[in-house]
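Hello again, I could really use a second opinion on something today. I've been staring at a protein lately and its backbone has me curious. You're getting the sequence in one-letter code plus the fold written as tokens. I'd be grateful if you could look everything over and explain what you see. No rush at all, and the record is pasted right below:
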Amino acid sequence: MIVRDAHPGDAAAVHRLIGQLADAPGDAAFGARFERVLAEDGHRIIVAESDGSVVGVLHVFERPALEKPCEAIVQALVVDSDARSSGVGEALMREAEAWAQSRKLGSVSLYSGEHRKRAHAFYERIGYCKKATSVRLERTL
């Protein structure tokens, strides 16, 4: 397995993986999102490749804050359903942690849906602990 930065040619594979996590938009909308995140300073898209295929993706970014130290936020982590429980997710998380340390960030945080019990067990197994619960509110503009 190779863990590396995503490049524009990975857009279709990443789009397929994101579709395993959430409702993914159409190709054009996803392509625009992908290119924007790739271009953003303080964001990183990391992929795991096995036998020439992208089998995992992680999007991490630096979040400055007023009420606490800056931290890295894992926005999305998806491992292909056929590659789960094979070390891909942990390798991606460790790369995100190394990136955060290189930027002198003191922690890595993430949000995970309440119903994703298997994901919670994975994160706890690799050293993450539940810090808080919250309610996400949104207003569509």
User: Anything to note?
Assistant: The chain has a mean pLDDT of 94. The longest strand covers residues 53-63. The radius of gyration is 15 Å. The domain at 2-125 is CATH 3.40.630.30 (Aminopeptidase).
